[in-house]
């Protein structure tokens, strides 16, 4: 829904909110994830997520997001060192950042000693694996941890 397939659908979607982790495209009916803005690919049908006035160097990232090395694209901290490039310049998977001694920001922990991906503490042991090898749902590591949640921490 909200892909612009019909005028009726567009009208319904124009009144819909995109929430905190998405933004409305200039066409007024389509929503895209904030991390998809300025990634070099037009995700909005009207291309507004790649607007040159928006995708400028040194732009300010939304709360909970970190800038890629290109100084334009913003992604969520947990997308760094995930094993999948999310920055268009691949800087989130840089071997200088993704090291065994990587320190996670406050409120986050590494998936494991061998996995440098940082995950929100509230997402450990929530019966929804986020780490590439499911380390965040390992019964032995969940034994002394409170049960996590499935909500985005920056929305609470």
From TrEMBL:
This is Uncharacterized protein. It is found in: Membrane. It is a single-pass membrane protein. Its main location: membrane. Keywords: Disulfide bond, Glycoprotein, Membrane, Receptor, Repeat, Transmembrane, Transmembrane helix. One of its GO terms (cellular component) is receptor complex. It comes from the Eukaryota. Pfam families: Ldl_recept_a (PF00057). SUPFAM superfamilies: LDL receptor-like module (SSF57424). It comes from Mytilus galloprovincialis (Mediterranean mussel).
